[in-house]
Design a protein that fits this description.
Blueprint (H helix, E strand, L loop, with lengths): L2 H13 L3 H15 L21 E8 L26 E3 L1 H16 L4 H7 L13 E3 L2 E3 L4 E5 L14 E5 L5 E8 L8 H23 L17 E6 L4 E4 L2 H9 L7
Antiparallel strand pairs: 1-7, 1-8, 2-4, 3-7, 5-6, 8-9
Organism: Methanothermobacter thermautotrophicus (strain ATCC 29096 / DSM 1053 / JCM 10044 / NBRC 100330 / Delta H)
Keywords: Antiviral defense
Protein name: CRISPR type III-associated protein domain-containing protein
Length: 261
């Protein structure tokens, strides 16, 4: 028996709607564990236990446009996804992977070999290949706010239907993004593969964060970030470099000197 479904139904019937009471409960939980989310983030020291040429990218971004996502409520899909442990609004690792892959395919096409190396093969593929990229959740310490959007018809730019209420993370909200690159051994051109991988990662990050966004409403411009950020790139052996925007990160990755095996 699905107790979560029964619990949601009880709140829906008891309170006349699930959104407000469930949000209050999750916010109360977040107050007890609001700092525990840091345990989900990777440590630069972990690179010493990973294969050569592994790279960790981390930066704090600021939303330029609102962010929203589709929660798991049985009665509304317009609630932002929340972590069940901390109660904080979050971006799932799978969401990051899907959006970055979308940006990368816009640059290279879906069947490009670099795409498959980085993100892995598609579920329906005969050859199961694990990708070289590892994603981590992003947690927002600030609470979500209520907003309303009105979908427009593309042809006439007139309302397609009535206003839709939804939860959003407002512009100015900060979040932390982490991406780990772990290159498994390739062919004799392994060094060239790493250079190709890192170049595409840099370009895809710029396209996702600055142009397409990473929100469920990205076609409306949701989920785009400010260009300035606080970032750091770590390599094996304790080497690290700071960057203040994704264009600087692109230059760092473009000049990356890989270790010979």
């Amino acid at each position: 028996m699905n107790l979560d479904g029964v619990y949601d139904f009880y709140l829906h019937e008891k309170e006349g709607g699930i959104e407000e009471p469930k949000r209050k409960i999750m916010d109360a939980v977040a107050g007890d564990h609001k700092d525990d989310f840091k345990t989900f983030y990777p440590s630069p020291d972990d690179l010493n236990y990973l294969p050569m040429n592994s790279v960790l990218i981390g930066f704090q971004f600021t939303l330029k446009k609102p962010y929203t996502s589709r929660g798991e409520s049985k009665f509304s899909e317009n609630l932002i996804v929340r972590d069940q442990f901390t109660g904080l609004c979050m971006v799932r690792p799978s969401t990051w992977k899907g959006n970055l892959r979308f940006a990368a395919t816009k640059l290279m096409g879906p069947k490009n070999s670099i795409i498959i190396r980085l993100f892995g093969s598609n579920p329906d593929s005969e050859d199961m290949i694990k990708g070289r990229l590892y994603f981590f959740p992003t947690f927002f310490k600030e609470g979500a706010e209520n907003d309303v959007i009105t979908p427009l018809k593309r042809e006439t730019r007139t309302p397609a239907r009535g206003p839709i209420p939804l939860e959003v993370m407002k512009p100015g909200t900060k979040g932390d993004f982490y991406l780990l690159y772990v290159p498994y051994l390739g062919n004799e051109n392994f060094g060239d593969e790493i250079k190709e991988d890192l170049k595409l990662i840099a370009e895809a990050l710029k396209l996702m964060f600055y142009t397409y966004g990473f929100s469920a409403k990205r076609t409306s411009g949701f989920g785009v970030i400010e260009k300035q950020l606080e970032g750091k790139l770590w390599m094996r052996g304790g080497v690290s470099k700071n960057f203040s925007n994704l264009h600087e990160l692109s230059e760092i990755l473009d000049g990356y000197g890989y270790e010979q095996h």
